[in-house]
Amino acid sequence: MDAIExxxxxxxxxxxxxxxxxxxxxxxxxHDLGKxxxxxxxxxxxxxxxxxxxxxxxxxxxxxxxxxxxxxxxxHVIKLIIGELNGMRPDDDVYLAKILTxxxxxxxxxxxxxxxxxxxxxxxxxxxxxxxLGRDMEEMRGKLEEQGPNLVVTMFREVAEQIRxxx
Length: 167
Ligand SMILES: [Fe+2]
Ligand SMILES: [Fe+2]
Hints:
The chain is mainly alpha-helical. Helices cover 84% and strands 0% of the residues. The chain has six helices and no strands. The chain is globular. Bound molecules: fe (ii) ion (2 copies). One fe (ii) ion binds at residues 45, 48, 71, 75, 109, 113.
């Protein structure tokens, strides 16, 4: 599958998981959904940051570099929220409030990616290049999935270090 199609599928999947959090959801079910959301987003962000963004950043378009800097800042905010979710129990309203806030941030970020960043890639990369990138993504996805919960723990530590540097 080409890289852009695969990223768009990830977006749909994670938004659908967030939709399932609303309504009459038992705390245990909410916790399971929260864990899946954290996991999906951790892997997705890693694929974009390591494989996709570096390629888009250097495309011959005036806004390419800035779009990626902005997207990375959005990832930073997303990671702060998922880092907090990862350490929480879902038994109060704050957990759901965080997930719904995450949705707002994600929707704005996805609009930027699908409206600005992915079209840049599609304008400058051939179908074969996008397919190769898609293959690299699936290979890295497989490795990240093998890491299990450790991936999220590592990310949480990175976020904690980022926060320490900011204060
Ligand atoms: Fe994305
Ligand atoms: Fe992203």
